[in-house]
């Protein structure tokens, strides 16, 4: 089932999400709905706060980025193929590498894209959908998607990484989003 995505300005997007236990109600169904919602809105990642659940859960599919990338672009990301993964109770263990810019967007902040600087690699501890503990290091675009979704479960948004002047320049667009004055081709819930 495709779920509505909460828009910028909704308070759940600013909450630090809580860890969950294996007996979280209908977790398997929730994860399936998150995949369907993410793909139905043409996203590459989706965090539970974006569907109005303040829990530490997100899904990513960075494989589709590489599948849709032009051949000449792929040379900038040697060896990367992306991952399709569920992250539960994720906590960043460390980061490494130089910060690099990439143009990011967000399903909760539609029609706004900006360059955001993030480290090259992230090491993250989490449990998968079977609650098996894992710790892995990701790099490049996959790390980027993980950082972006991880921000959501920590109550942050990609626009928080922008310089104050750039944020002020976006203020009217952000206000329009929070007031529901935007059209998208997926279901959204706007703040009241």
UniProtKB/TrEMBL annotation:
The active site is at 149. Keywords: Hydrolase, Iron, Metal-binding, Protein biosynthesis. It holds the Pfam family Pep_deformylase. The keyword Ribosomal protein does not apply. GO terms for molecular function: peptide deformylase activity. Binds 1 Fe(2+) ion. SUPFAM superfamilies: Peptide deformylase. CDD domains: Pep_deformylase. The keyword Protein biosynthesis applies. Transmembrane segments: none annotated. It catalyses: N-terminal N-formyl-L-methionyl-[peptide] + H2O = N-terminal L-methionyl-[peptide] + formate. Fe cation binds at residues 106, 148, 152. Its EC number is 3.5.1.88. Its cofactor is Fe(2+). Belongs to the polypeptide deformylase family. Removes the formyl group from the N-terminal Met of newly synthesized proteins. Requires at least a dipeptide for an efficient rate of reaction. N-terminal L-methionine is a prerequisite for activity but the enzyme has broad specificity at other positions. This is Peptide deformylase. It comes from Chitinophaga horti.
